[in-house]
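Incident log entry.

Two folding requests arrived from the same account within the same minute. Monitoring flagged them as a possible duplicate submission, but the sequences differ. Recording both here for audit purposes.

Request one:
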Amino acid sequence: MKTPLSRLSLCICYCTVLAVAFFYYPRWNCSNTEATLSWDVSGYYMYLPAIFIYKDINKCRFKDSILDRYHPTPDFQQAFTHSKSGNYIMKYSIGQAVVMAPFFFMGHTYAHLSGTFPADGFSYPYQLAIGVGMLLFAFMGLYYLRRILLLYNRDGTVATILLLFTIGTNYLNYAAIDQAMTHSVLFFIYTLLIYHSIQFYKSPSRRATILIGFLVGFATLIRPVEIISVIIPLFWSIHSATDLKLRMAFLKKNAYLYLSTAGVAAILIFIQLLYWKVVSNEWMVFSYQDQGFYWTRPHIFSFLFDYSSGWFLYCPMMMLPFIGFYVYLKNGSNILAVVLFTSLNFYLVTAWDIWDYGGFSGRAMIQSYPILAFPFAALIDKIHHKKIMSILLLFLIVLFAYVNIWWTHNAHRGNVKLGGVSKAYFWEVIGRWQSPDDDIIKLLDNPDFIENNSLGGKAVYENTFDTDFSTNCINNGISMKSIFLDHSHQFSAEYVLNANLKGMKFIRATADFKSFQKEWDIWKMAQFVIKYYHNKTEIKSNFIRIFRFLNANDQKQIYMDSAIPDIPFDKVSIYFYNANSDKKIIIDNLKVEIF
């Protein structure tokens, strides 16, 4: 008997995830902020060591020893001090910790038995157990995605969707590398929720309602906005206004079943409320503090197309399901549930004020991919027998998959910076596996950067600062006298360029820099600045962040470029700014050329 293509595709997907997780980037072998239990994941997970190892869910007195030894985050970002109780409140909901609990206990048991690793919640056995354990959810999610899609689509279409999600989208990263994030788990929960919603309307039963309630409650316990998952069981299999009327009648007749669903979901959600009550004596705590929703101004364009993290720029494959809606709305099934959920979910995701989600905005949409698989499949089904359209689609698929693999590599092991980048830098490096020049990183701050360090311009200004009597110049540094910036000395003097710039296109300023400690906070990196004024009004500025190029105890000559504006100006100044950093930096031998 011939093996179905979708089964073969599923096997390829499993092998891809395993190969990436175990051989390409086993995150459990990494340390500090690249370890499995780092950044957001350490926040989801922190409940478990706090409760079961340190017995200190209120004060988290163990936090400093964990930060000092494992450095999962630069500081304690996993919780905040509650103003009334004085206790620490975990930032993230408890649901992901519940998911991780079985693997945590496996790691804890191994650490105790090994005699080699400390049983402190963050040593290697815990990293390994959580990392490997969470891969199971990726496998189960893909398994159930195949099952539900086969109910509505050709086998070949299902095989294609599985491959495209796994190889062509950011799902690969969050299934195989950042697998301990919430996205792969929620992806699985949504596939299971769709599957049991289908089964319920085939054969309604209390058992099915309990399962659905459990899934809705668990999704909400992991990420509160996932309460919208209730849309799926409420509106699944509705295709028309007549279906909607019949559903309302069914709901009224079987209200006790829906109440069972709500009751089970409420019991799970109550776990979070109970935690808040125990640690703060309040039933409700908004743990994200100063973060929230811009209900009237969702960041739609930025979320999709911003060069720093836009979903469609870094995961272009997911443009295709939205194109597929054109076909799906004409001939698809379960239209009401799919459209209503997609619309509300997209609104909530883009309304969050931290719209880039700490790096790559598209990760917030991964759990909705099982829903978006339906219009995606409709598109593939529609054009698979149209030769020209099929060739065009194949070209786009290959291109988009290439971008995804490029993104996945450079997010972890590559030399190209991703996230927080400028338009100029994005288009310079997109698709490249090696950054062409270390200086190209200047495009992150300065779009006027020219990739040529020997242009042979005309020197119009030089300053060794040896005769500079400003308060920020000291007799200590690279030569006799230098600019010195630190916490108490944030700005240098402004050095005005008195030169005839007529007919010139660019200014290049060069200086020598010496560091002592590395400034890692991008917003506090010292800046090298050129500004243009007209009648004391600033009309243009360029800058670069110096610590992008300096490590601890480095000494380098660094240049920056500025395109001379076409509009009138009467003053050009150059200065240095420490951006509220306390890291010391010495600057000398400023030189300016025009060309």
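Request two (distinct sequence, not a duplicate):
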Amino acid sequence: MATIGQQLTSPEIGWKRHNMPTAKYSEGVWENYGNSYFRSANLNAKISFKFTGTKLRIVTTMWSDHSNKISISIDGTTEVYSESTSETRQALVFEKLGLIDGLHYVEISNATNKYITLSDIDIDSTGRLFHSDEVTNIKDLSVGKRIRCHYKSAVAGTIGAFSGLGQETSNFIPSTSSATPDGDFYFIMAEDWNKKKMLIPDRNIQHSISWDVLNSAGIASGSGAILDFQCVPTMNANDTLEMAVEGSQYNANYPPYKLFDGQFGASDGMFWASATAGVETVTITFKNKTPIINKYNLYPRVGYLDAAPKDWYFYGSNDKTNWVKLDSRVGESKWSSLSSPNSYLFQNDKAYKYYKFVFSKNNGNPLFYELSEIVLAEKKNYSSTTRLLTGGTSASDTDNEWDKYIVNSTLNGTITAGDNSVWNSSYLYTYTSTTHSSGSGNRVSRATTKSGLVAYGSAVSNTVYANSGFRPVLIIEMSTGNKSFILFNGGYKKWNTENKVWQTVSTTLPSLDTFISDGMDDLSVFDRKATTIVQSTTANGSLGSGKMFKGNIDLKKYFEITNVTVK
């Protein structure tokens, strides 16, 4: 077992490492030092984060000019550690064991004006690290708060899939971005107006993609494009821990899991091809959840549109025997030659463990069906679109979103304006939607320099750049839909589907936000069934040679009785 001061280049068994961890770096000037660690030489410079688990290790660089008095507070209990010694890279400087298994709040602060650094945080292998301003549900977002998301594009130059909003899916996309990203990032809420939330990524999520590709998908326009979050985890086999998919395949190169591998391409190994062009079924099994799916996107294989499906059904089931038809399409022939999907929205308020597509006809290919990807979207109480920030028509034009939010905003005092540890924009240009003054073929790109100076640049719209990338703004518009509570015995109640009980939400009229987040949109619990009531009767004295009987029916229990027959 490692000891304090010892070099620890990788986590030990039972631990999970977060390299260059995402935390809140405040009360000082923080520098990303060579993509090895964060450092600051400011008195009272602070690092704050949250984590779930029972243990914590701080791993960083020790040096003679580093601070020897660093305080660390865990849930209000403070201890002190030092980084001051001869040079040791990735040294274990602090360890805490035996914490109660749950959520813990950590703040690290510097009591000197020597360097404080952070390279790695190790926690339980089953734990999760949170930024101090992180939330996991969009209803908890406010300006300055952030929510985690996953993005994957397996093919350079093509737009990928978004998934896992609020979840920890994988390690973060590098702060310098990637041509083929497969990682997490943060959406940071920058604006909230009239129930419409504006969120900006904390980094470029993809480089080496052209502005024209983004524009062809509608992302570069002012209104933006609808963004659907994939509810299926990225698959690398037909049967994984979270999900299984079944279906025929033309050969071993085109298995059905390719429909959910996050690869939107035409090359071999990036699409599913069925065994025949007859009736083909693709069945999806969720192992750990039962999502309510009311939309799906189908991506064709580029260049082989005749193999895209033309007629099909989409079903849901909870026993894999009794299937409910959720959607059907006939005569679908409008497929794009680009790597863009056809989207299908339908009404569904039920959660299912199993879903399946039954394809019965394609667009003329005699051999098989082919699809590059399927995105299954869960029902949600909001709409979401994505677009690019505006960037200003010239360097002197500061009336634009990049200057307003990235350069000048403190996000209601939660960050330092222009902080590169928040926005990761130093020498990394971000495409904007604005046309450059030099001509219609050039687009404005924005960045900052290491010293924080504002950088204004130009990108040729059909060219890819390794230092320029895609930072998609997310616009979330909340909608109530038909949301309901039941007022009974002085409490506003909703039906808890998991525990099968009525749960009191409030004793006063709930707010609009509460209706949106907690209101019932499925009132099937009130579905009424024909019921025969056998009411016992009692003798009530004599009447001539016969007897008279009486009985009482509780109308509060047996509501909406339309007919009573007494024999």
